[in-house]
Design brief:
By secondary structure, the protein is mainly alpha-helical. 64% of the residues lie in helices and 0% in strands. It is built from 6 helices and no strands. It is globular and about 35 Å long. The protein starts with 10 loop residues before the first helix and ends in a 5-residue tail after the last helix.
Length: 107
């Protein structure tokens, strides 16, 4: 279990950072993505365009913390998230992250 003290309002930036780290790991199951998703390339391009400096500043977490969270997430069988589901934009981001996690192949 990890605890990440986010900057107030930084949860969406943190989720983008975790998604960016997962994408940069290059371990996604591209066959699964192609067969079961729509719009993934647009999502991936949007995340890739995010600058780490901005993500770090907005989230309040370091790039290393976000990359470590992504690594730990890729090793998990289940994903639980509490505390931000009441915000519709963050809930959508969490759903995207959960979906992205399903496509990651552990190393």
């Amino acid at each position: 279990s990890d605890y990440f003290p986010l900057r107030i309002g930084g949860d969406l930036a943190a989720l983008k950072g975790i998604a960016k780290a997962l994408l940069e790991r290059g371990t996604l199951d591209r066959d699964f993505i192609a067969a079961h998703t729509h719009g993934f390339e647009a999502f991936a391009a949007d995340i890739a365009a995010e600058d780490w400096t901005v993500i770090v500043a907005q989230s309040g977490l370091s790039q290393a913390q976000l990359e470590n969270a992504a690594l730990n997430l890729s090793r998990q069988r289940k994903l639980f998230s509490l505390g931000s589901a009441h915000k519709s934009d963050v809930a959508r981001a969490e759903e995207k992250l959960a979906n992205l996690k399903q496509t990651d192949q552990p190393r």
